[in-house]
Amino acid sequence: MNIEEKMSMIAELLEEEVSAISSATELTAMDYWDSMAALSLIVLLEENFGRTDISSDKIKTMTTVQHILDVMEKI
């Protein structure tokens, strides 16, 4: 999966246009980054990247889109 596809998935999760986010985007600055989005991220990572090792504690340490991209790369 290429970076554009990953960014598209993240943008959809955050209910934003791809052009509105970058790797430096702070998750807490996004209107739709909340506990439901965090749970949705866990599901997205499990279903699309086989990451069954991501806990809510790990999600809490993610502060930028780049952190999500890093987790997507570690498969």
Structure, described:
The protein has helices spanning 3-13, 35-49, 56-61, 65-73. The protein has four helices and no strands. The chain is globular and about 30 Å long. The termini are close together. The longest helix has 15 residues, at 35-49. The protein is mainly alpha-helical. Helix content is 55%, strand content 0%.
Question: H/E series, N to C?
Answer: HHHH
Mean pLDDT figure: 93
Work out the helix count: 4
Largest sheet: none
* Beginning-to-end CA distance, first to last residue: 12 Å
Strand coverage percent:
under 5%
What is the structural class? mainly alpha
Uncertain segments are none
Give the helix proportion (percent range): 40-55%
Topology readout:
Layout: H1 3-13, H2 35-49, H3 56-61, H4 65-73
Overview features:
55% helix; globular; 0% strand; 75 residues; single chain; mainly alpha
Compact summary:
The protein is mainly alpha-helical.
